[in-house]
Amino acid sequence: MFELVFRRRFSMAHRLLAGGSAQCALPHGHTETVTVRLRAVRPAPLDGGANMVEPFARAKSRWHHWIDGHVDHALQLGEGDPLLGWFQAAEPERLPRILVTPGDPTTELLCGLFAAKLGAFLAADGGRLACAGLEIEETPTNTVRFEGDPFDILPRRQGWWSRADLSINDLDPAR
């Protein structure tokens, strides 16, 4: 079975409050690489013409637009982080650049959230492809891989990650 595999690098900042690490409780950043593996939902033999599962440009266009335009250089905060309240009060114009997660924005959680978001994009594009796996390289020595249904591991089903829009949080009062 064929898999389409593509990578994207992005820079981010976050902090982790629940893990007990003094270093990770301070805002800090990483340059991360996300790797996506896609498979055809209904595999078929190559057609003898175009001979593609799906054109790469179509398969990755929306995903890359979301990573490049919304995830790259975003600040990742857990929904209970006091910094989120500070931004809401002091710099509300920056809220669209804050990726908000249910609990600490760990690499494990991000794998699940990103897999769910990718699944929403793929479903909205006709559902011909499905996410076979997703991995995030946080540092050159730390990588998290995820395969399966992200909703089996996420703290809750609903949120920006379940919609095929370009959102990274649910802070819009109109929602």
Describe this structure in words.
The protein is α/β, with parallel strands linked by helices. It has one domain (4-162): Tetrahydropterin Synthase, Chain A, CATH 3.30.479. It is 27% helix and 28% strand. It has helices at residues 22-25, 56-71, 82-90, 107-124, and strands at residues 4-14, 28-40, 74-78, 98-101, 129-139, 142-146. It has a six-stranded mixed sheet with strand order 4-3-1-2-5-6. It starts with a strand and ends in a 29-residue tail after the last strand. The model has no long low-confidence stretch (mean pLDDT 94).
CATH topology: Tetrahydropterin Synthase, Chain A
The helix-and-strand class reads: alpha/beta
Helical fraction equals 25-40%
Please give the oligomerization state of what you see. single chain
Largest sheet: 6 strands, mixed
CATH superfamily: 6-pyruvoyl tetrahydropterin synthase/QueD
Relative strand content: 25-35%
CA radius of gyration: 17 Å
Could you name the key traits of this structure?
six-stranded mixed sheet, 6 strands, 175 residues, alpha/beta, Tetrahydropterin Synthase, Chain A, elongated, single chain
Summarize the structure.
By secondary structure, the protein is of the alpha/beta class. It has helices at residues 22-25, 56-71, 82-90, 107-124, and strands spanning 4-14, 28-40, 74-78, 98-101, 129-139, 142-146. It has one domain (4-162): 6-pyruvoyl tetrahydropterin synthase/QueD (Tetrahydropterin Synthase, Chain A, 2-Layer Sandwich), CATH 3.30.479.
